[in-house]
Design brief:
Layout: H1 13-42, H2 49-64, H3 68-101, H4 112-133, H5 143-169
């Protein structure tokens, strides 16, 4: 007895849309995932003040003649700026990822849903990061850094709202 094999249909536009959709999701999520890895790496002993100081002091001393006494202040400000920028970038990447994952029928450029999820995920990562650091002898987990990181997330979300709102209404930036 001969078995009939089901006919294979040629790929149609639907399968192309699925591949494109999957590819666009990956394109949106990969930067966020990589950035989470960067934050995890910086949360380790490698990101401790003693290690960043070994790199930054010679650089600042060579470029700007910063002495050891003034370096302590500069080092603190550079590290806190790194916190702010790093978590702002994470929040932006998460906004992009959620915008691709949860598209709206209106094709809006900005959504409170995307911004809210990105903000709360960034705050969660910041909290977990500081919690993790509290277990490392070379690091300290500080609630003040969670506030700083969450402020960065909120700042970038407000910035995105302002920029994308202008784009969607057709105003010049």
């Amino acid at each position: 007895m001969r078995r009939n094999k089901p006919a294979r249909l040629a790929p149609g536009p639907e399968s192309h849309r699925l591949k494109t959709s999957r590819a666009s999701l990956w394109k949106a999520w990969v930067p966020a995932i990589i950035w989470l890895g960067v934050i995890a790496l910086e949360s380790s002993d490698l990101g401790a003040a003693k290690n960043t100081g070994r790199i930054l002091y010679p650089l600042l001393h060579f470029l700007f003649k910063v002495d050891a006494m003034h370096f302590v202040t500069w080092h603190h400000h550079i590290r806190k700026t790194g916190h702010f920028v790093g978590y702002a970038v994470l929040s932006w990447f998460l906004f992009r990822a959620w915008r691709a994952t949860l598209p709206l029928a209106s094709l809006a450029a900005w959504s409170l849903q995307w911004a809210g999820i990105a903000f709360f995920m960034t705050a969660l990562v910041a909290s977990l990061d500081e919690w993790h650091q509290s277990f490392l002898p070379s690091r300290t987990g500080r609630w003040q850094d969670v506030v700083l990181d969450s402020s960065a997330a909120l700042t970038i979300q407000v910035f995105l709202w302002m920029v994308l709102r202008r784009r969607s209404t057709g105003m010049s930036a």
